[in-house]
Amino acid sequence: MPPLHDIDTIVFDILGTLVDDTGALRTALAGVASDAGQTDDLAALWERHVSTEQRRVNAGERAYAPGAVIDREAAQAVADAAGLTDPAAADALVHAARQRSAWPDSAAALARLCEHHEVIGLSNADPTELLRMNARTGLRWHTALSARAASAYKPDPSVYRLAIDWADRPADRMLMVASHAWDLRGAQACGLRTAYLERPGGDPPAPEDRFDLHLSALSELPGALRP
Question: Structure pTM?
Answer without folding.
Answer: 0.94
